[in-house]
Write a structure and sequence with these properties.
This protein is α+β, with helices and mostly antiparallel strands. It has a single domain, classed as Peptide Deformylase, CATH 3.90.45.10. It is about 30% helix and about 30% strand. It has a 5-stranded antiparallel beta sheet. A two-stranded antiparallel ribbon has the order 4-5. Strand 6 and strand 7 form a beta hairpin. The N and C termini lie far apart (about 45 Å).
């Protein structure tokens, strides 16, 4: 595939929920090379996470920083992720987004989440995440649901 361009708002693909990675892709060359290209694009852009729709791919797939993943003993790529539980406790942190260059917005997020998804080989993971990693997982899962931080910020203003 080679170099991937990062899609920026207002591209429509950033506003749409993404379809699942097909079962027969797990462990296959297409998925593995897509993940490798996404990692390269994320690093080139100095990101900590990158969702497939941010590089124009219509799939429920994201990659996260390899060091961050290693620190938490989880894969650095997740397919078909889902957050099944959000803690009532929230905190606020300024978030940036590769699809909204140069913009940083304070975003409220759950401090802890219950997360599930599959690695590139199709192995299922289910775990509780807290702190910064929970925030990254929420941000990337949001992307796959068609939500960017600008949408989150609008919602939060309404709630105040």
């Amino acid at each position: 595939m080679g170099a991937m361009e990062i899609v920026t708002i207002p591209q429509k693909i950033l506003k749409e929920p993404m379809p699942d990675v097909p079962d027969d892709w797990f462990g296959g060359e297409h998925l593995l090379s897509l993940i490798a290209d996404m990692r390269t694009a994320m690093l080139a852009a100095s990101g900590v996470g990158l969702a497939a729709n941010q590089v124009g791919q219509q799939l429920r797939l994201f990659v996260i920083d390899a060091e961050l993943a290693k620190e938490h003993g989880i894969p650095d790529a997740f397919a078909n992720p889902e957050i099944t539980e959000y803690s009532k406790d929230t905190d606020v942190l300024e978030e940036g987004c590769l699809s909204i260059p140069g913009t940083y917005i304070p975003i409220f997020r759950a401090k802890k989440v219950m997360f599930k998804g599959y690695d590139a080989q199709g192995k299922k993971y289910k775990f509780r995440a807290r702190g910064f990693i929970a925030r990254v997982l929420q941000h990337e899962t949001d992307h796959l649901n068609g939500t960017v931080i600008a949408d989150r910020a609008k919602e939060q203003k309404k709630a105040l």
